[in-house]
Amino acid sequence: MIYHVRFKCADDYNARRLPYRPAHLKQLDQLSRQGLVVAGGPEPDGDYANIFYDVPDRAALDALLVDNEFNRAGLFVGSVPRVFTEFLAPIERPPLDTAFMVTIVEGKAADRARASDGMSGLRRTGEVAFGGFFDGDAALAVVRHADPHEAQRIVAKAGGWVFEGMSARPWSQTL
Question: Which fold has domain 86-173?
């Protein structure tokens, strides 16, 4: 099961995170090598972070969340986990601590089959790193473009998505 977890960061996250960062990166790297983490990184403003986990069930996810270095340090003060019902895995993963500037685009799929085909095509051309669908018509794509408006345009042009209500936010993919 692939989960997207969006963590709410503490108000002083940017001021306090550096001493904990090496251990956090080491932990994420180990989990990635074990196949338990697909990708992760902060949003540039320091308000949120995103980690994509590949775990057998919710209990395994909960154990990883409790053990997360930033969570134990009080740098994460909340989290919202969502399980993908369909996931397009990354074709490649960037090296650890890349700080690859991408955009997370979220929205609704008006036509899930068409949106899935469009996202698969964008992944093949390298414009989308990975993404997928949640229950209902909710969808998420990690677009390899730093400009949120351009990322939305790329996803919308691929088809199957509802442009109205689509959101895009910058993300620094560090793993």
Answer: Alpha-Beta Plaits (3.30.70)
